[in-house]
What we know:
- The strands form four sheets. Strands 1, 2, 3, 4, 11, 12, 13, 15, 16, 17, 18 and 19 form a twelve-stranded mixed β-sheet that branches.
- The chain has a domain at 7-157 and 207-242 and 321-448.
- It is an alpha/beta fold.
- The chain contains 17 helices and 19 strands.
- Helices cover 33% and strands 21% of the residues.
- The protein is globular and about 55 Å long.
- The chain has helices at 14-18, 24-32, 34-48, 51-54, 74-77, 82-93, 112-115, 118-131, 190-194, 208-211, 233-236, 267-281, 287-301, 320-333, 380-390, 399-409, 424-428; strands spanning 7-13, 58-63, 99-104, 134-139, 144-146, 151-153, 162-166, 183-184, 197-198, 201-207, 215-219, 221-225, 229-231, 250-251, 347-361, 365-369, 373-377, 413-417, 420-422.
Amino acid sequence: MIGDKESFIDLIYCPEMSGLKRDIYSLSRLYEDRNKIYPLVNDLFKRNFTEQQIKGKNILLKPNWVHHSKSENDHYCLITNHMFTLSVLESVLQYLPGRVTIGDAPIQGCIWNKMMDTRFMETIEEFRRFYKTEINIKDFRRKIWEKSIGKVITDNNPLSEYSIFDLGESSFLDPISNNEGNFRVTNYDYRILQGTHRKGLHKYCIANDVLTADIIINLPKVKTHQKTGLTCALKNLVGINGEKDYLPHHRAGGTKDGGDCYPGRNYLREISQAVFDIANKNIGKKSYLFWKYLGQSFWKINGKSPYKQLAAGWYGNDTSWRMVMDLNYIAQFGIVNGSVSEKPVRTIFNFIDGIIGGEGNGPLKPMPFPLGFIGFSNNSALTDMVFALLMSFDPKKIPLIDAACKKFLGVNFKIFINAGECSISDLLSYSIKAEPSPGWKNFIENTADIITV
C-alpha cells in the first residue's frame, strides 16, 4: 500500500482478532502480555512495509509521551503504551534500519525518568544488543520545570540541536495574528511568545532528530483534548517542537474582543487574564504563586462553565488547531537549516494505539475508554477522521480535523478493518460513545448526518 497515492487506513479490531471482550479489563491484557500484542502489531506492520523501505533508513518513532503517570490508569490511557511502542520498534528492527530514534517533548513538569519504566528501558537495551542497531531515546525539551527547586532548567538540550523555522505569512496562524502579539501559553511568559509569533512572523523550534529522519512513524494515543477536541495523529506531532515558547495555544480575551479564551466578553475574566500575565512574568520568583493564586481567584468568582475553561479549553479555541497544522507541514517539508522544501523530504506514517483510548478531561486527565483498535495509515487527516467517528464524534465539528481533511485528504481514500475494505457506514457499526472534554460536550457528539463526512 505504501507508495500508492491513495490515502488509506488499515485497522485491526482487537477483540475480534484476539478473542477478548471490548472492555477495559480485557483490553488491558494486550498491554500486559507481549505475546498477545506483538503478533497483532507485527502483522499490521508486515502488511504495509517491505524490508527495502526500512533497511538502512533513519527512523523516528514519535509516541505520545505527554506526562509521567499520576494515577493507576494512566499507563493505559495517558501515553502511548510502552508495550505498544516496543512492538512497533521490534517490527521496525527486523527490517534492519540504519538508526532508530524514539523521542518526544512532554510538558515542562514531566519527570522523564518516571515515564521511562525499568522494563521498557531494559527491553530497549536487549534490542540494541540483539539487532546491533543504534537506538536513541530522546527528550526533545529545551526547558524543564524542576519542582523540587521551584525553577525552570533551561538548555536541557543545546539550541544547536534544533532548527528554527519561520513560516511567516504562510502560517495557519497569520490570519488571526496582530502586531502586538496576542497569543498566550498557560504558565509561560507571553512576552517571549510575542517574539516568536505575531503578524507576519511565526517561528517554531524543531528537534534536528526529526529533520534528519527519512521516515517518521507517528505513534499517537487516541484521547480527547481540551483545546483541539481530539488528539490523535495530527496533534501528536506537536512534540517535535522543543520549546513551548514557540507554541501558541490560545489568544487573550473573549470572542467579542478578538480572543478565543472564552465566549463573548467578561470583565472579571479579563482581570483574571491580566493577573495571570503578571504571574507569568514572575515565573521562578517568590511572587509567582501569589499572582497565580490571585488570577485563579478572579476566574472562579465568575462561576463555572464548561465553555469557560482556563486557557481556552473549549470548542471555540481557534488557535491551537492552526499551530498543529503548521507543525504537520514542517514535519513533512522541513529541512535542517530551517527552510522548507517544495516537495516532501520525508514520509510520515501513523501506527495508532487505540486499544484503550482516553475520554473525558484529556489530554492530561483522561479516563480509560475501551476503543479496541490499532491502526496503520499513510494520511494523518484520515486517521483522525476515522478515530473521531469511532468515538462517536463528528469530525466536521472539530476544526483541526475539518481543516486537515479539506487540505490533505480529498475524496479518494480507503478504510480497511481486519484486512477487509469497509465503508463509513460499516465503520460506524464499530463506534461507541466517548465522553468529550468538558468544553466540547454537547458540541462534537455524533449527529444524524455524520455519514456524509
